[in-house]
Specification:
Radius of gyration of chain A: 18 Å
Oligomer: heterodimer
Distance between the termini of chain B: 119 Å
Number of helices of chain B: 22
Number of strands of chain B: 15
Number of strands of chain A: 8
Distance between the termini of chain A: 33 Å
Largest sheet of chain B: 11 strands, mixed
CATH architecture of the largest domain in chain B: 3-Layer(aba) Sandwich
CATH superfamily of the largest domain in chain B: P-loop containing nucleotide triphosphate hydrolases
Chain lengths: ~230, ~650
């Protein structure tokens, strides 16, 4: 039994995003029937497990065999119950962004949090974004060559904490996993040209206040609503 | 004559039988209670076994029991709120007949039952206990365990903690075990298990970060502690201010001293940079004087650079191989003193020559036109005719007279300084400053050329003390293998100066004797180590043990019955024993250390730090050293600096997420 190309892409997507719900998988595979068929194939191959972890559609998460098939060296685990809402919000954000014409034309690349975390050293306390969007230098867009940090804010943090995270993201100059000395170096260009905040209604006011507190740096913070269907 | 009845003496065999019977009855009662409270007994046994296996202190078990209490509270709240009206159903009637609480159609709720709220709460443990027995009797062992868990788990862990504490108490007071040797054997086995627990913590990925969540510098895993908080299975961490106080590290070769020092240095750098980033302190500066020299020091220097780079240090300068300092930046008065200290001179009759040298050096440094800017300039001024001409041009007749009268001494002084500069090399003749890097690793050839290393150490400490006066950095001066330079670097004097300058000094030596030349100086160094003393395996820990102080200890003797066994009676007395067990220190393994601070001691398994090879900066193409001074980048008023607004990306963002929030 083999996987169709679209199924394979969706499997990598599910592996990168910790897990995925069937309705979001349907958005990737093109419909409910194809999503169910893909899920069945993955389970038959031992690439994924399924379960009702929350209300709504069934969750799928990739097993160790599936991660090996995707070429990912993450640790296989079931998505934590407390993280489900956030995982869904980030997946919805990625799906919405990847569906845009500019993203496809530019052949942009989403670097997921799980991938960043896998490279990130243990025991080092740094904030990791929910994802990074890399726009190739050759992309036919005005912001070609930029790297964006993406943050999905489902539950509100404090204004001070949110401001500190924004500042850390905008000040960062090195890649995640680099030596501490290169994380934020004076005189080097910032890693993230801008930070994209996708907010739930509950978190929106906090994020806007935090952005105000940044002063001139606020120009590099984009605040938008989470896309429809992001709520668990 | 009056006859009195002799006191009744029980037959010894009957007496022993009676005692044995009572003991048997007691044990039977205890066994019956343990069997009746089987869930609690099982939890207690598991907790005591865990305490024994991991070598935990009892308070850790008590804390675990306390962390289980929320479960019990939630369970009691659920029991109090559980609907009990459905008890009239047939199933409920049957369940009640079987002694099982039955609260609704098909819902089994151990511990729940009818009655007012207070009665439900009060009776809940008993009902849960009853339900668990009934479930066990029906073969549902897992359900029985779940039913009894909310009250039994915390109670059992508490009981296990008490049992483990009692066992420890008996052994520590010498009253436990079958023979008088049992407590010592117990303690040595306990130590081995505690070491195993500490090593397991070291092996757990991410368990011991360099800086803890609350900003403490983590050195490793605690093995055992006396009069300190923490204990086996916990991180051994010290607050940053202790690294900003004087410390002493003593350990023989191959005991893990360098590993410990690297950990402390990296911790100082990481914590200091964090405080600097928060605006709470100046930028940290680490200066290491490695007084051993040779290839091994270069290896350690390279490892230090990688480790510090991972800890956040931008630049580590390795002196004198890759970077240099300028002695000539010292103010003239200080420069004269330092130059004289670099030359070894005697006392008695030789004091005359010392005075002559002092006069000549003062004249050379204080010549019109300012102090010398390099060694060549200084040596050129030791020509009496040139120096006299210089002073004559400025109209200083007294100086000219002095130069002419001491003309014969100039040649000797010049010879000595020329030889000194040839041996010192260019390390003190460059243009660098301590402010150019986050860390300086200075390699002094103490093994090969002791006299040169002593002079270099003297010059470097004088330079650092002068730099510290500016108060721009939080400085830690670490002197490794101090014995190589201790003859001419009276570190205890620097201790007192350093305190005023805000400079912390960390001295490490291979033995107590290596700390200084005289015992008085050793005592001064150790006594002023306010940040604590780190002791690795060393054959003579006695002096440090004396400094650590004593603690009360209950010592129990046992009466030997004379028939191959010891009787159960004896005497207990309190006596004072050292807080730091010298025998443990003598037997410490590689990577283990005893941290002595304020009359307490923590034995630590040090976590090794490894810097990544990839973290090394590549050497510059033009031949510059890989550890060049910090690049001269102007610090902007705002960090991160504001940039021009990025190009408008509304095209993609509007399509994906809707309008922007302003």
């Amino acid at each position: 039994m083999t996987l169709a190309v679209r199924d394979a892409d969706a499997l990598v997507f599910a592996a990168d995003m910790y897990g995925i719900q069937l309705d979001q998988l349907a958005a990737l595979t093109g419909g409910d029937r194809s999503a169910r068929a893909a899920a069945k194939r993955w389970r038959d191959l031992g690439y994924a497990e399924a379960g009702r972890l929350s209300e709504g559609p069934t969750w799928l998460w990739v097993t160790r065999a599936g991660l090996a098939a995707c070429g990912r060296d993450y640790q296989a685990r079931k998505p934590a119950t407390t993280q489900l809402a956030h995982i869904r919000a980030v997946a919805a954000t990625r799906i919405a962004l990847e569906a845009t014409g500019a993203y496809r034309r530019a052949s942009a690349f989403w670097r997921c949090e799980r991938r960043i975390r896998a490279r990130h050293g243990r025991g080092i306390r740094q904030h990791l974004p929910d994802g990074e969007v890399h726009w190739p230098d050759s992309a036919p867009v005005a912001w070609a060559g930029e790297c964006w940090a993406v943050e999905a804010e489902v539950t509100p943090k404090t204004v001070a904490r949110t401001t500190a995270i924004m500042r850390e993201i905008l000040a960062r100059t090195g890649d995640y996993g680099c030596p501490g000395a290169e994380a934020a170096v004076l005189g080097r260009p910032p890693r993230h040209a801008r930070a994209l905040y996708l907010c739930s209604p509950a978190a929106l006011s906090i994020v806007l206040k935090a952005r105000e507190a940044l002063g001139p740096l606020a120009a590099r913070i984009e605040v938008r609503d989470l896309p429809p269907g992001a709520k668990l | 004559m009056r006859r009195e009845a002799a006191p009744y003496i029980r037959h010894p065999v009957r007496r022993a039988l009676g005692r044995g019977l009572w003991r048997l009855l007691g044990l039977a009662a205890l066994a019956a209670a343990a069997a009746a409270l089987a869930p609690v007994t099982l939890a207690a046994a598991a907790a005591a076994a865990a305490g024994w296996w991991r070598g935990w202190p009892p308070r850790r078990l008590y804390a675990t029991a306390a962390w289980c209490l929320p479960m019990t509270v939630v369970w009691l709240a659920a029991v109090a709120a559980w609907p009990a009206r459905a008890a009239g159903s047939a199933a409920g009637t049957a369940a009640r007949a079987a002694g099982i609480a039955w609260a609704g159609a098909g819902v089994l709720a151990p511990g729940a039952g009818p009655g007012p709220v207070w009665l439900r709460v009060a009776a809940a443990p008993y009902r849960a206990w009853l339900a668990s027995w009934q479930l066990a009797a029906h073969g549902h062992l897992a359900a029985a365990a779940v039913a009894a868990a909310p009250p039994a788990v915390p109670l059992g862990i508490l009981a296990g903690g008490l049992a483990w504490q009692y066992r420890l108490f008996r052994m520590r007071t010498g009253a436990g075990g079958l023979t008088p040797a049992a407590p010592a054997t117990f303690d040595s086995r306990l130590w081995r298990r505690q070491v195993r627990t500490a090593k397991a913590l070291l092996a757990a990925p991410g368990a011991l970060p360099l800086i803890s969540r609350n900003g403490l510098v983590v050195t490793g895993a605690a093995i055992r502690s006396v009069r300190h908080r923490g204990g086996p299975g916990r991180a051994a961490a010290i607050p940053y201010p202790r690294l900003r106080s004087h410390q002493v590290v003593i350990g023989s070769t191959g005991t893990g001293k360098t590993t410990l020092l690297l950990r402390l240095w990296a911790g100082f750098m990481a914590a200091g940079l964090r405080r600097y980033a928060a605006g709470a302190a100046n930028r940290p500066l680490l200066v290491v004087l490695d007084c051993k020299g040779g290839a091994s020091s270069r290896k350690v220097a390279d490892r230090t650079r990688r480790v510090l780079r991972d800890a956040g240090a931008r630049s580590t300068a390795i002196w004198p191989d890759e970077a240099s300092l300028s002695l000539w930046t010292l103010p003239p008065g200080q420069l004269v003193t330092t130059l004289l200290d670099l030359i070894e001179h005697g006392t008695g009759g030789a004091a005359y020559y010392t005075d002559v040298m002092e006069a000549i050096v003062s004249l050379a440094v204080g010549a019109p036109g300012g102090p010398p800017t390099c060694s060549a300039d200084f040596l050129a001024r030791l020509d009496p005719s040139l120096l006299a001409a210089s002073y004559a041009a400025s109209g200083d007749g007294a100086a000219v007279t002095t130069i002419r009268s001491g003309k014969r001494g100039f040649e000797d002084v010049e010879l000595r300084f020329r030889a000194l500069w040839r041996r010192l090399g260019a390390g003190l003749d460059g243009g660098g400053s301590f402010g150019d890097a986050d860390a300086w690793y200075c390699v002094l050839e103490g093994t090969a050329e002791g006299a040169v290393a002593e002079a270099q150490a003297r010059a470097l400490t004088d330079l650092l003390a002068h730099y510290a006066v500016g108060g721009q950095r939080e400085i830690l001066l670490a002197v490794d293998e101090f014995s190589a330079v201790s003859r001419r670097l009276p570190i205890w004097r620097l201790y007192e100066r350093a305190r005023a300058l805000g400079l912390a000094v960390q001295v490490s030596a291979q033995s107590w004797e290596g700390l200084a030349d005289t015992d008085d100086e050793r005592q001064r160094i150790a006594a002023t180590a306010e940040g604590g003393i780190w002791l690795l395996r060393t054959p003579r820990p006695g002096p440090v043990s004396d400094l650590a102080g004593t603690r009360a200890y209950v010592d129990t003797t046992r009466r030997f019955a004379g028939q191959g066994a010891w009787a159960g009676d004896g005497l207990s007395r309190t006596r004072l024993v050292p807080v730091l067990d010298a025998d443990i220190v003598r037997q410490l393994d590689v990577g283990q250390a005893a941290y002595v601070y304020r009359g307490g001691v923590t034995y630590v398994q040090v976590k090794r730090l490894t810097g990544r090879q990839a973290a090394l900066a590549p050497a510059a193409a033009d031949g510059d050293a890989p550890t060049m001074p910090l690049p001269a980048v102007a610090v902007p008023a705002q960090w991160p600096p504001p940039l021009p607004p990025p190009p408008d990306a509304s095209e993609v963002l509007d399509e994906a997420f809707g309008a922007r929030h302003e």
